[in-house]
Amino acid sequence: MVKLLSSVQGYELFDGMSLEEANAMVECLDGHVISRDKGAAIFVEGSHANRFGAVLSGSLVVVKDGLDGKRIIIKRIGEKELVAAAQAFSGAKIMRVRVEADAPSRILILNAERVCSPCCNGCAFHARLVRNVMRIISAKTLELNAKIEILSHRTTDDRLLAYLHTFAEKCGSNEFDIPFDRQQLADFLCVERSALSAEVSRLARAGAFACHKNHFKLT
Amino acid sequence: MVKLLSSVQGYELFDGMSLEEANAMVECLDGHVISRDKGAAIFVEGSHANRFGAVLSGSLVVVKDGLDGKRIIIKRIGEKELVAAAQAFSGAKIMRVRVEADAPSRILILNAERVCSPCCNGCAFHARLVRNVMRIISAKTLELNAKIEILSHRTTDDRLLAYLHTFAEKCGSNEFDIPFDRQQLADFLCVERSALSAEVSRLARAGAFACHKNHFKLT
DNA sequence: TTACGTTTGTTGCCGTTCCAACATACTTGC
DNA sequence: GCAAGTATGTTGGAACGGCAACAAACGTAA
Predict the structure, then answer these.
(1) Which residue of B130, B135, B161 is in closest CB contact with A91?
(2) Does residue A127 belong to the interface with chain B, where contact is any CB pair within 8 Å?
């Protein structure tokens, strides 16, 4: 057996499996590893959506070309995360977005149809895998809901406050470090970086929170 | 056996099952039906998130109380759709939103933990059910992605055009009826109704499309 | 230290949205 | 038809964000 995986540590997809079990699983799902340089495509718009991927190293971006020629970055996908899972399991026939490497990356490509089919090899972990996939996709749905709640605010300060309070709620404390620098936070909130900086200052002066760099303390 | 379902027609959750099979399934999932008047809660914030629902009749809204006291409507859920599925299958322990009836409604409540557990009664449709749930949740994820793409535009006209072009792409024609009146469309795009009306007029005058009521024809 | 690049904060102008109020359709029930 | 209610379109003033250009703080390497 070819061992495509060298570790299952940190992969939600393989939660509850040993390395051997996961590698058996991978073989059962037609697994193969591809490598891509920065900018190279993993999935292109219009391609058949029956495969999904797990990022082994590097990072990807999901992009959509706007009508005006502008490229919109829909999301970033980091190591050990899944890509195109929703596409593959939704029953949609073709990809409506483009996925490309944001850095030199290695991706484990898996056949989605095999996930739900009765396992030919009688491997005992399909049920576990299905539960994991369901949990991953569901969690992603919740994340997207949270993001929509933030984006439903139109002003920069409302978006910032919604983000900070959601974050505080999630981490159970009102003092925390956010995982973004200013530019990344601006991209996430879909606002201008400079306007965001200005709002951070203004709200801090107004006493809504204290902050230094990406450390925040809500009041 | 109590037959809680009188039809499986239109329920993606029971796709591929007969009415008898679906009713057996429902019993296996601890199914029971609840009724709620408009405004009454189905799930409250902070409650244990191990159940989900299928709307038998009526319609629901998922709401979140903002810090400023404003209630944000996150989404509407219509007949035969699922509610709280992502919550229940994500592994999250508690609900972070509130779900209430938007009209007098009957909801079939199901136990999410039973979906993935090996079936006690040996009923043959767990695998099918799991596939259906995965497809439903995945499709929802794609919908949310599309909405985020729309909301990532900040101007009303960009949001409107993004929505219309996405819709045209989905229905495969550039002449179509949208399922919203102006107020609903404004809510969906997170913009002001009056500003939206103004933009519709302006873009129609500018020749981007022709429109009458909710019938649009892109040029 | 100096020089350089990167990140973050600040400012002014201009375009757009918000909000409220009003005007004009369209629909429904009588 | 008429009236009442709802949906849609229009307008003007105030507020806000986008953009560009610049200033300040920080880290790094020669």
Answers:
(1) B135
(2) yes
Q: Tell which residue, A131, A73, A122, A132, has the closest CA to residue A98.
A: A73
Give yes or no for a contact between B119 and B81, defined as CB atoms under 8 angstroms apart. no
Tell which phi-psi region holds residue A69, choosing left (phi > 0), alpha (psi between -120 and 50) or beta. Answer: left
Mean pLDDT confidence for A42-67 = 88
Per-residue model confidence (pLDDT) at position B160: 93
Nearest to B26 by CA among B14, B36, B35: B14
Half-sphere exposure for B35 (CA within 13 Å, toward CB): 3
Query: What 3 state SS string does A14-64 have?
Result: HCCCCHHHHHHHHHHCCCEEEEECCCCEEECCCCECCEEEEEEECCEEEEE
> Could A138 and B190 be called an inter-chain contact, meaning their C-beta atoms sit closer than 8 Å?
no
Asked if B61 contacts B73 with a C-beta cutoff of 8 angstroms, the reply is yes
What is the tens place of the pLDDT at every residue in A57-97?
988 888 877 655 566 777 888 899 999 999 999 988 889 88
Predicted TM-score of the model (pTM): 0.89
| Nearest by Cα to A188 from B142, B72, B148 | B148
Which positions on chain D have an atom < 7 Å from some protein CB? Answer: 7-12, 16-21
Percent of chain B at pLDDT exceeding 70: 92
pLDDT higher than 70, residue B123: no
Instruction: Count Cα neighbours of B148 within 13 Å in the Cβ-side half-sphere.
Output: 26
- Please classify residue A190 by burial: count the beta carbons closer than 10 Å to its beta carbon, then call 0-12 exposed, 13-18 middle and 19+ buried: middle
Are B156 and B164 within 8 A, CB to CB?
A: no
φ, ψ of residue A215 in degrees (nearest 5): -100, 125
From residue B51, how far is each of A211, B34, B84, B112, B115 by CA, in Å? 39, 13, 7, 5, 10
Report CA(B109)–C1'(C7) in Å, whole number.
51
* Strand C nearby residues, CB < 7 A: A 154, 181-183, 193-195, 197-198, 200-201, 213-214; B 155-157, 190-192, 194-195, 199
Asked if residues B149 and A64 have their Cβ atoms less than 8 Å apart, the reply is: yes
Cβ contact (<8 Å) for A145 and B86? yes
Q: Give CA–CA dist A180/A188, Å, rounded.
A: 9
- To the nearest whole Å, the CA of A187 is away from the closest chain B CA by 9
Whole-angstrom distance, CA of residue A123 vs CA of residue A67: 47
Which of A58, A80, A76, A60 has its CA nearest to residue A14? A80
What is the distance between the alpha carbons of residues A44 and A28, in angstroms, rounded to a whole number? Answer: 25
Q: Is residue B74 within 8 angstroms of chain A, CB to CB?
A: yes
